[in-house]
Design goal:
The complex is a heterodimer of chains A (104) and B (362). Chain A has 104 residues and is mainly β. Chain A has one helix at residues 34-40, and strands at 16-21, 24-29, 47-49, 52-54, 67-70, 73-77, 88-90, 92-93. Chain A has one domain (18-93): 2Fe-2S iron-sulphur cluster binding domain, sarcosine oxidase, alpha subunit, N-terminal domain (Ubiquitin-like (UB roll)), CATH 3.10.20. In chain A, the strands form two sheets. Chain A has a five-stranded mixed beta sheet, with helices on one face. Chain A has a three-stranded mixed beta sheet with strand order 4-3-8, with no helix packed on it. Helix content of chain B is 30%, strand content 26%. The chains are: A mainly beta (104), B alpha/beta (362).
């Protein structure tokens, strides 16, 4: 959920761009981390680690909890990766595979 | 291979201060940072700083970032490598990195490691469930990206971070169901505790989280009382309904690159974890490798900025800028830092630093 009213901060509304998550078309602000765009759409489950759902934990690129598959590339830290128009974002299963198959 | 007099790894408060101090002393600086803009965790500090005017007291962290960014931008001796992850530090101070997903190498005369800290995790059942966040992550989502992570939050830890982030959650429009603290007393400053209490947020001491509840996302938590030995008292378990659990149980230095550099490291609980042996001017036992900020000892941004200034001037002096006015300036920074750490609040840090100070070699 995006914060609309804040006593200290002002959030500039950037350009909204479409991207897909698990085949579903969503919108996010261009340049914000992919994880922020997903959170704004109410999505907190980012991958499946050996049968356990995982989400965002540190949000600053340290912990590797938020690894996802972006445009076919696995292990992308979506907490730091800026959102671009048309990105194809998928939940990562296991360790990911560069060849696009299997659960690694 | 490209060379820079001083390479600074990390563009937070310590790294930015180090870059400015070194460049103002006249050496060429390269500062590398993981994000698209430098600032580190200062970018989410919306509260006003304490301390003296000298240390920007009364200014919000987000305003300090703007000041430092502008000074760095205007300084022709500083190059900033953004979106850059450092991969390793090799012998002869060769640094490998990934800049905008492209591999690169460079060498440095001196290296200042200012990588900061990472959040500590807490062990409890289901602690990997989506909806369990580090306190810093919640702060980042809210204060940097304008996203409220949840509606109803449980905060674990009543130190300053737990209290400040709770207050910021309230400011963002979320509900804070409770703050729990394992210790018998609230660890943070009274002024922060009072602020959240005025909103009616209960703070339960001698209490911990036993489990997170939920299948694919957090739907609640099990709390329990703790005895004097920090053990759960059986039969005291009770459930609380929340959609977000926020962990604020402290930070640990992000010291991997220091280990890589060959610096002698020791575990010093007072300083937050594994930290390098260093001299008064923050040079580690790895020649030409300096340290500054939370990676040197978990403290706060004012101390990090002063450490950055000391390390930056020191690296410049050691690079040949051995001028009396710089040596005097460095002593001023050292003195300011000592004043900041004096008093009761700084005792833990002072005790820790005694354990890790680099002895003069005869």
């Amino acid at each position: 959920m995006r914060i609309t009213k804040h006593p200290v901060l002002k959030f500039e509304q950037g350009k909204m761009v479409p991207f897909t998550f698990e085949g579903q078309t969503l919108e996010g602000i261009e340049g914000e981390p992919i994880a922020a765009a997903l959170h704004a759409n109410g999505i907190r489950e980012l991958r499946d680690h050996k049968g356990r759902p995982r989400g965002l934990f540190c949000a600053i690129g340290n912990c590797s909890s938020c690894l996802m598959e972006v445009n076919g590339i696995p292990n992308v830290r979506v907490c730091t990766e800026p959102l671009k128009e048309g990105m194809i974002v998928k939940k990562q299963k296991g360790y990911g595979s560069l060849l696009g198959g299997g659960e690694g | 291979m490209k060379f820079s007099d001083v390479v600074i790894i990390g563009g937070g408060p310590a790294g930015m201060s180090a870059a400015l101090a070194a460049a103002e002393a006249g050496v060429r600086v390269t500062m590398m940072d993981r994000f698209s803009e430098p600032g580190g965790q200062l970018v989410k500090q919306t509260h006003r700083f304490f301390g003296s005017e000298h240390e920007r007291a009364g200014t919000r962290g987000i305003e300090i970032v703007e000041i430092l960014r502008k000074q760095i931008e205007e300084n022709p001796l500083i190059e900033v490598k953004k979106n850059t992850d450092v991969l390793g530090i090799y012998s002869d101070r060769v640094i490998t990195f990934e800049e905008d997903h492209v591999y690169g190498r460079m060498t440095a005369g001196k290296i200042i490691i200012a990588t900061g800290a990472s959040e500590k995790m807490l062990q409890f059942e289901n602690n990997d469930l989506p909806g369990v966040y580090g306190a810093g992550a919640v702060q980042t989502l809210m204060n940097v990206y304008g996203i409220q992570p949840g509606q109803r939050v449980l905060m674990i830890g009543a130190g300053n971070i737990g209290l400040i982030v709770s207050y910021q959650l309230l400011q963002a429009g979320a509900q804070v169901a409770a703050i729990v603290e394992a210790a018998p007393r609230i660890g943070g400053y009274k002024v922060h505790a009072s602020k959240v209490r005025r909103f009616g947020v209960p703070i339960y001491t001698k209490t911990t989280i036993k489990a997170a509840l939920g299948d694919h996302r957090v739907t609640g938590a099990v709390l329990a009382d703790m005895d004097d030995k920090f053990q759960i008292i059986p039969g005291t378990e009770r459930e609380i309904e929340v959609d977000t659990i926020c962990i604020a149980v402290g930070l640990a230095p992000l010291s991997e690159l220091l280990v890589h550099s060959g610096a002698e490291m020791h575990y010093v609980p007072q300083l937050g974890g594994f930290v390098p042996v260093r001299d008064e001017y923050l040079e580690t036992t790895a020649p030409g490798v300096y340290v500054a900020g939370d990676v040197s000892c978990i403290e706060e941004a004012t101390a990090a900025m002063l450490e950055g200034s000391i390390a930056g001037v020191s690296a410049a002096i050691a690079s040949g800028m051995n001028r009396p006015e710089l040596i005097a300036k460095r002593e001023e920074f050292v003195e300011q830092l000592a004043i900041l750490r004096s008093g009761a609040a700084g005792k833990k840090i002072r005790d820790g630093l005694k354990l890790i100070a680099r002895r003069e070699q005869n």
